[in-house]
Structures are given as structure tokens and as C-alpha cells.
Amino acid sequence: MSLDPWVLLAIACMSLATYATRAGGYLLFRAIRPPALMREMLAYIPGALFVSYVVPALFIGGLQQWVGAGATVALMLLTRQMSLAILGGTAAAWCVWAWA
Amino acid sequence: MTRDSPQDSRPSFTRAALRNGMRQAMPLQLAMIPFGLVCGVVAEGKGLSLLEAVLMSAFCYAGSAQLLALSQWAVPVPVLAVTLAAFVVNLRLALMGPVVGPWLDRVRGWRLWTSLFMMADQNWAMSVREMQTGRGDAGFLFGSGLVMWITWVVTTAAGHVMGGTLRPPGGHPLFFAALAVFVAICAAMWRGRRDLLPYAVAGLVAVASFRLLGGTWYIILGALAGAAAGVIRDRRA
User: Fold this and answer.
1) Domain of residue A16, residue span
2) Does B222 touch chain A (CB under 8 A)?
């Protein structure tokens, strides 16, 4: 169990920077009373954010990622069960990996 | 007390919502396990002690930021570089906070600060869905986040302990589970045809900025472009 002071400093700085993003966006929005345009945008942020996360990952991914993602979306839309969709999608990706 | 605004502003952080959040987050934990294990394995590989790895997960509590920071790890630690990496990857959290504002506006003190701390991608997505149904309060965000935080810290520790013995190869489908969570959230967030344009614009801008800029700015740029496209379309209609 060692604790390096530089590692500790890095962890502290990373943690503060992360907390600043968690609290900062909310506090800023509360303080400045943003214009209507920005408030309307908030309704679209959730979907757009996760699409932006996923699409580049699929873009550089291969058959395994594509089949897995397809199965995940299909299961999610059919069953509305997130855990089932994730397990089924991962299983589909695993099948592609095992057969490749 | 009279309600002078359409929005109820009474403080709200109920035990029922907290329990409901914890319960709803449980099934998701299975998909988070590989992600935490990977984080622990990588930390061990980079020479962090078990205590250091656990401290990082407990206080930073941000998977993608930790993995990116660990990829730049060296001796001595490039403190500024890893801090900047964590900040930029997590800028998306700054966009996420205001979305759950209606809940957060109704809590004060430690409940507000810990609810903000517990906000991560998956439980935030669950909270947005819960909020859209008109149920719940900040307790839901806190409770679902607490379950994820425990999983995150425990699996990081487990990954560190397994370290050298278990090292799945890079393309192993276990890693896909983390991406599958986000894919499932995309599908869950889909509200019908009006989301087609923002989704498409977000995807295109994300891929374009991913290729042109590298780094992790593509998440924020894609999200902002997609949301802007949706609002501009609505305003013209």
C-alpha cells in the first residue's frame, strides 16, 4: 500500500476538475438565467450527447461492434429493458468474436 | 406556502425516490463490471498501488476520464496533462447538470453537492427518463449514482487485484459491454421522428470532429450541434 505524493496530487487535481464539470454546468445555468434558445436545447442534449459518444466508436469499430450495437438497439426498442438489451447485445458481439 | 410559480419549489429529496433509484440502477451494474475491472487492471499496469487506484475511482468517479488519464500516466506523473484530460472528457457533465436542474433546484446543502457528485452518464440518463414521467426527485439521482459508485470502486479494486493474472486482449467482447450501455441509452432516449434530425446531425458532427480534431471534443461538439439543429428546426416550423 504505497502512496506517492505526486500520484496523490494528480488524483486530487483530476477529482477537482471532474467535480467542477459536474457542479459547474448546473451552477452556471442557475446563475446566468440563460436565453430561451439554450433552455430549449437542453431537451435535445440527452439523445444528441449519447449519439455523439457512440457513433465515432462504431465508426472505428468492426463487425463485432456493429452487430452488437444493432442487437442492443433492436432489443431495447422491442423489450424496453435496458439490462436485457445490454446483455443480449454483448452476447451478439461475443458470438461474432468467437466465430471470427 | 403558496405556489406562485408553475414549478414546485419545495425542497425535495425523498427516501422513496432514493430507494427507487437504487433499485432501478441494480440491473445496469452487470454491464459496468467489465469497465471497472479494466480500469483496475490498467491502473495496476501503470504502477498505481491498490490504494491509489481505489482513491482515484472513489474521488474522480469518471471511467472514461480515468482511462484517458491513465493512458498518459508516467513517472513522475504529468499532473497538468492528466488533469486537463479529465476536465475535457468530463465537460459533457457540464451539459448534463442543467438538464436535471428542475430536481437540483429543489435541494440545498449536502444533498445538492452529493447529488451533483453522483451524477454519471448512466444514472443521469435514467434520471432524465424518470423526470420526464413526472415522478422522482434528486434522491433518485443520488440513489442510482450511489449504487454505481459502489460498483465502480469495488470493481476497480477487483481489477487491480486480478491485475497481472487476468488480461483480456484488446478486442475482447467484454469491452463491448461498456459501449452497449451507451447504445442502449441512445435507443431509450429516442422519442420518435422529431429526434431523427438532432440524432443525425449529432452523429455526423461527432464523427467529423473525431476525425479532424482527435481528442475528446467530439462528444460536446456533436451534442451541441445536434441539439441546436433540433431547436432551429422547431423554431422554423
Assistant:
1) 1-43
2) yes
